[in-house]
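Need tokens for this chain, all 199 residues.
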Amino acid sequence: MAYPTVDSPYGLIPINLIGGQVFAGSTRQIPIVSGYATAIFFGDVVKLVATGTLEKDTGTATATPVGVFLGCSYTDPVYGKSFRQSYPGNVVATDIVAYVCDDPDALFKIAVVSSGTTIGTVTRTAVGNNGTLVQNAGSTATGNSKVALSSTTATTATLPVRIVDVVPETSPVGTPGSYTEVIVKWNQGMHQYLNPTGV
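Here are the structure tokens for all 199 residues:
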């Protein structure tokens, strides 16, 4: 059975926890301030700010995430209580709540890009290295993120994610040993819950 080709990045998708522990889909509900202007898409990296509310983390080499955005809810003035795949930005409501995968031990699947949204590859030698996030505008049609991982990896300790495995199922046909998707975790100290200086 052939697996689909990865033709576009899709953000970070939680799959399990370090050590093979099961990800049960648990999320934390974190408010978004009324009128927050920046759109947030399913799979985007998000952070806490000093007000205790949530914002999109636009960091690439220096992200400080609290987790990954997995949807939101708020009271729409026309449709009433709404549950959304993405937060469209500029929503005026007092009850905007984001659903966030905030477990510091979470592992995420992410697409590799050479730049922007152009799919790239890494080899197995990338496992154990650290990576830079590539921030792209999300899809308003699907509500999904377009955040990806740069195909250039390094041992630089300050980069936000560590590559822990490759995804062989979507390896490009005809290029054995190349991978368009990898599994990553937050690097020690990058996740806001593990940063002793706080928000």
